[in-house]
Amino acid sequence: MYYVIIPTYNEIDNIEELITRLTKALSPLNIDYRILVIDDNSPDGTWKKVQEIMQRDKHVELIIREKKEGIGAAIKHGMKHILENTDAEYIVTMDADLSHTPEDLAEMVKHSRSADLVQASRYISGGKIIGWGPHRKLISWGANALVRILYRTGLHEHTTNYRIYRRWLAQKIVDYTRSRGYEWVIEALLVSIACGAKIVEVPTTFVNRVKGKSKLGVKDILGWFKYIVAFRKQFNIIRNTCRESARTS
Ligand SMILES: Nc1nc2c(ncn2[C@@H]2O[C@H](COP(=O)(O)OP(=O)(O)OP(=O)(O)O)[C@@H](O)[C@H]2O)c(=O)[nH]1
Ligand SMILES: [Mg+2]
């Protein structure tokens, strides 16, 4: 079973198209799937639109949280819910703003069977970015280069929240991640590496948000760089604890 977590905050203009395209992409794959939207009580009523879709599509589920607490907190809430209430083996995460092309999921699903984490990647052969100016490209390139060098990840993409996690890894991420905002996306990847996960990158086409407002500000971007550097100590602690628990379990 594949559970797709979509965190939303004011995505009323995007959520219906995303679910339609996602359903079209998933249906022919012959897999059991659910789509779980985690909405932080969006003032634009995104959750109402999801409730409407739920009336006609039983694959769609919704959790409404009281207030906006960050993308990381929302995804973690969804992961915990899935781990506690289902026996799903695969957890997919993706943004609601149509930046993460649903049509790329088939290839990711294929690779998920032989990996612990599938990372959709803009920075390997076949990957693309549509609609970003040089400024945004440079920031993303810088953040990715910094993670790659500091943590010797051997990966090209670390900042995109379009992934498939194995169940055991999702449990580790729930146990070990602490951040709540955008830096969580990087933290979850670093925890995966610290726990020895097998990670595969699959090319994706990233399309800049067309509708709705970005919630990512300059403060968040600066926060990323600070976070990447500061996390090194925590990374070593998690690596020791996670591998120790793997040996003893
Ligand atoms: N539930 C919840 N979702 C959030 C929160 N912050 C962001 N999101 C969602 O997380 C996803 C990514 O947020 P975006 O605003 O697109 O951030 P980004 O992709 O880094 O930046 P842009 O594409 O430039 O807007 C989207 O689906 C948002 O609706 C939050 O506090 N709570
Ligand atoms: Mg976005």
Describe what this molecule looks like in 3D:
The chain is an alpha/beta fold and 249 residues long. It has a single domain, classed as Spore Coat Polysaccharide Biosynthesis Protein SpsA, Chain A, CATH 3.90.550.10. 47% of the residues lie in helices and 17% in strands. The chain contains 9 helices and 9 strands. The strands form 2 sheets. It has a 7-stranded mixed β-sheet with strand order 3-2-1-4-7-5-8, with helices on both faces. A two-stranded parallel sheet has the order 6-9. Strand 2, helix 2 and strand 3 form a beta-alpha-beta unit. The longest helix is centred in the middle third of the chain and has 18 residues. Bound molecules: guanosine-5'-triphosphate and magnesium ion.
Question: CATH superfamily name?
Answer: Spore Coat Polysaccharide Biosynthesis Protein SpsA, Chain A
Bound molecules: guanosine-5'-triphosphate, magnesium ion
Strand order of the largest sheet: 3-2-1-4-7-5-8
Q: Could you tell me the mean pLDDT?
A: 95
Q: Spans of 5+ residues with little confidence (pLDDT < 50)? A: none
What is the radius of gyration computed over CA atoms, rounded to a whole number of angstroms? 17 Å
Kindly state the percentage of residues in helix. 40-55%
Number of strands: 9
How large is the count of helical segments? 9
CATH class category name: Alpha Beta
User: Biggest sheet, in brief?
Assistant: 7 strands, mixed
Which CATH architecture would you pick? Answer: Alpha-Beta Complex
* Terminal Cα span: 25 Å
Any idea what the shape is?
Answer: globular
